[in-house]
């Protein structure tokens, strides 16, 4: 169960990283900001699409929270009901899906 708990925390941290780091206004306020770090500015107009980008970040955070909840539930089911353990598959799916989900939402709504 400890492994499931650690994976759930890492999924939540991944969601918060995307939510905080990919925010266009917050990124520019940091002292480590460089032009090449602002990848969204290459493809999108940040002033016009700022609301859509923030909404996409929020959706990614909710996806990561749901995935963390699913990881914990699968851990409990594995321990108490001997259901096959798939926490590794869920973690890999979360990592692979996060950025395409974000950019798909932004492209669809701009």
So what's the overall shape?
elongated
| Count of strand segments | 0
Average pLDDT, all residues: 84
What amount of the residues lies in strands?
A: under 5%
Number of domains: 1
Q: What's the Cα radius of gyration? A: 16 Å
Low-confidence stretches: none
How would you characterize the largest beta sheet? none
Supply the number of helical segments: 5
| Distance between the ends | 42 Å
Helix content: over 70%
What is the compact description of this entry?
The chain is an all-alpha fold. Helix content is 77%, strand content 0%.
Task: Please provide a written account of the structure.
- The protein has 110 residues and is an all-alpha fold.
- The chain has one domain.
- Helix content is 77%, strand content 0%.
- The chain has helices at residues 2-21, 24-29, 40-43, 50-81, 87-109.
- The longest helix has 32 residues, at 50-81.
- The relative contact order is 0.19.
List keywords for this structure.
110 residues; elongated; 77% helix; mainly alpha
Protein topology:
Blueprint: H1 2-21, H2 24-29, H3 40-43, H4 50-81, H5 87-109
Helix pairs in contact: 1-4, 1-5, 4-5
């Amino acid at each position: 169960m400890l492994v499931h708990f650690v994976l759930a925390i890492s999924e939540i941290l991944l969601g918060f990283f995307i939510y905080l780091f990919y925010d266009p206004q917050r990124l520019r306020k940091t002292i480590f900001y460089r032009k090449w770090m602002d990848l969204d500015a290459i493809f999108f107009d940040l002033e016009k699409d700022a609301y859509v980008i923030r909404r996409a970040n929020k959706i990614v955070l909710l996806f990561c929270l749901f995935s963390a909840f699913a990881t914990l539930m699968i851990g409990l089911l594995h321990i108490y009901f001997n259901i096959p353990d798939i926490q590794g598959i869920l973690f890999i799916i979360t990592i692979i899906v996060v950025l395409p989900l974000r950019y798909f939402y932004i492209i669809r709504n701009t």
